[in-house]
Specification:
Radius of gyration: 21 Å
Structural class: alpha/beta
Helix content: 40-55%
Distance between the termini: 51 Å
Strand order of the largest sheet: 5-6-7-8-11-14-15-16
Largest sheet: 8 strands, parallel, barrel
Order of helices and strands: EEHEEEHEHHEHEEEHEEEHEHEHHHEHHH
Length: 416
C-alpha cells in the first residue's frame, strides 16, 4: 500500500521547494527510472543487486548471491577492483565515502567526486563487466552533506541517504525526520535513474569520519514498512547486529546477528515492494592469513614493532562469514566490505618494506599493495557467489587460494 500524499516539515527549506509554512505535500514516491543509460558498462547499484537477489548470471537464474561493495579510497583500489571483477566476470560495486572523496579531491569532496567518477568511467568503458558507483553514508541533514549528495547524484549511479543518526547529539534521528530527508534524495535521484539506499536503525562503531556511534538499535519492523512505503527507496540498510570498524567484539568471540529479524523484514519487503534490496553495513569479515602475515612481517622488521603493534593485529575481530551467508538468504544482496581490505593493504605494505626497505620506486610499492588488494577482492567476490555473471571466470574459483606470500600472477596461475 502506498499513501496518496505525504507531508513533512523541513526547517532548511531544501532547494526552495517548500511553501511559507515549511510543509511539502508529495504524491507517490517517484519510481526508479530504469531507462536511463549511463556511461559504457555502468548501471545503477539497484540493477546489479536485483540481478544478484534473483540469482541471475548470463541467461540463467539460480542461487541468489551478493555484491560486495568495496569502499574505494585510492586509484590503486579502483584498479585492483576492476582486475578482480574482470578475472571473475563479476558485477562490480565501488563505494566512495565522504573522507575518500576528500582524499581524491585534495580536501574537496566535490572535486573528488569528479576525479573518482571520471577515472572509474574510463576503466568501465574498457571493461568486460558492468559496474555501479555508490556514495556511502551520504548525509542529507547538513548543508555540507547535501552538497555532496547532490553532487553524487550527478556523478555516480547510486547514493546512500544515511539520515538515521543525529551524530551531533549522539542519538537516533526520529522516523519522521529520517523519512523526510531520505524522501528528498529519492525525489532528486530516482527520476535520473540513480538508485537510493536508506538506513533504518543505528549501527554502532566507526567506519568513516562522519559515521560514528557508540550505540546500536535494531530496526523496528513497523517503522520499516512505513519507511520503505513513504520514501520509495529500493535499497535499505536495516540494523540487525553488525558493527562498523575492525573490532566487532572480543577476540575469540563471534558476532551474533539477528537473522530471525532479517527474515521478518524480508517478509514485509516482499509484500510491500518485492524489488527491495537489503544492505549489510559493518559486515567486514576477518582474514586470519592476513593477520598472520602482518605479525610475521612485524616480527621480521623489529622486536619493537611486534611488541607495539602485534597485539593490535591479534585483537581484530570480524563478522563470521557463515552468518553473512545467512543474510544473503534473507534478501541481502549488497554486502559492504572495507576493514579487511584495509588490513590486507597494510599487511602487504609491511611485507614490501620488509622485503626491501630501501626501494625508492614508489610504483613498486603500489604494485605490491594493489596486487594484495586484488587478491582480497577476489576472495570476497568468490565467497559472495558473485562470479560468472557477465562471462565465465578466467580461473577455477574452487582452486583459488588467498595467500599474501604469493604474487598475484602466481596465485592466479595456481587456480588455473
Amino acid at each position: 500500500m502506498f499513501y496518496e500524499t505525504w507531508k513533512y516539515k523541513d526547517n532548511n527549506n531544501l532547494n526552495n521547494r517548500f511553501g511559507e509554512n515549511g510543509m511539502k505535500t508529495y504524491n507517490n514516491p517517484p519510481q526508479l527510472n530504469t531507462s536511463r543509460r549511463f556511461a559504457d558498462n555502468m548501471t545503477s547499484a539497484h540493477a546489479l543487486t536485483l540481478k544478484a537477489k534473483k540469482g541471475e548470471k548470463g541467461n540463467t537464474k539460480g542461487t541468489p548471491y551478493a555484491l560486495p561493495a568495496f569502499n574505494i579510497t585510492t586509484i590503486q583500489g579502483i584498479n585492483a577492483a576492476f582486475d578482480a571483477f574482470e578475472t571473475l566476470g563479476a558485477s562490480g560495486l565501488l563505494a566512495l565515502s565522504n573522507s575518500a572523496l576528500k582524499h581524491f579531491g585534495s580536501g574537496d569532496p566535490i572535486t573528488g567526486l569528479e576525479v573518482a567518477a571520471d577515472y572509474i568511467a574510463a576503466r568501465a568503458k574498457r571493461s568486460s563487466v558492468k559496474v555501479a558507483t555508490h556514495l556511502d553514508h551520504g548525509d542529507y541533514t547538513t548543508e555540507a552533506g547535501r552538497k555532496v549528495v547532490q553532487g553524487a547524484v550527478q556523478h555516480l549511479t547510486s547514493v546512500m541517504a544515511d539520515n538515521s543518526t543525529d551524530h551531533a547529539n549522539k542519538r537516533g534521528r526520529s522516523l519522521e525526520e529520517n523519512i523526510g530527508y531520505t524522501r528528498e534524495v529519492v525525489n532528486m535521484a530516482h527520476p535520473l535513474g540513480v538508485s537510493v539506499e536508506g538506513e533504518l536503525g543505528v549501527l554502532a562503531g566507526e567506519e568513516d569520519e562522519d559515521t560514528k556511534s557508540e550505540v546500536s538499535t535494531y530496526t523496528n519492523p513497523d517503522d520499516f514498512e512505513q519507511f520503505i512505503t513513504e520514501t520509495g527507496v529500493l535499497m535499505i540498510a536495516p540494523t540487525i547486529g553488525t558493527m562498523h570498524g575492525p573490532n566487532k567484539g572480543k577476540p575469540g568471540t563471534k558476532v551474533k546477528l539477528n537473522i530471525e529479524l532479517a527474515h521478518e523484514l524480508l517478509k514485509i519487503a516482499d509484500r510491500v515492494q518485492p524489488e527491495t534490496i537489503f544492505v549489510a553495513h559493518g559486515a567486514s569479515t576477518l582474514y586470519p592469513q592476513v593477520v598472520d602475515y602482518a605479525v610475521e612481517q612485524l616480527t621480521a622488521l623489529s622486536t619493537g614493532m611486534l611488541e607495539q603493534y602485534g597485539q593490535t593485529w591479534k585483537n581484530f575481530v570480524g563478522t563470521d562469514w557463515e552468518q553473512i551467508q545467512g543474510l544473503i538468504g534473507a534478501g541481502f544482496a549488497k554486502i559492504n566490505t572495507d576493514t579487511e581490505n584495509r588490513q590486507t593493504f597494510l599487511s602487504a605494505l609491511l611485507g614490501a618494506v620488509n622485503t626491501n626497505a630501501a626501494k625508492i620506486d614508489i610504483r613498486w610499492y603500489d604494485t605490491k599493495t594493489t596486487e594484495a588488494l586484488t587478491q582480497s577482492y577476489l576472495v570476497k567476490l568468490i565467497m559472495a557467489g558473485n562470479y560468472g555473471v557477465w562471462h565465465e571466470p578466467k580461473i577455477d574459483v574452487k582452486k583459488y587460494n588467498f595467500d599474501l606470500h604469493l604474487a598475484l600472477a602466481d596465485a592466479l596461475k595456481n587456480a588455473q
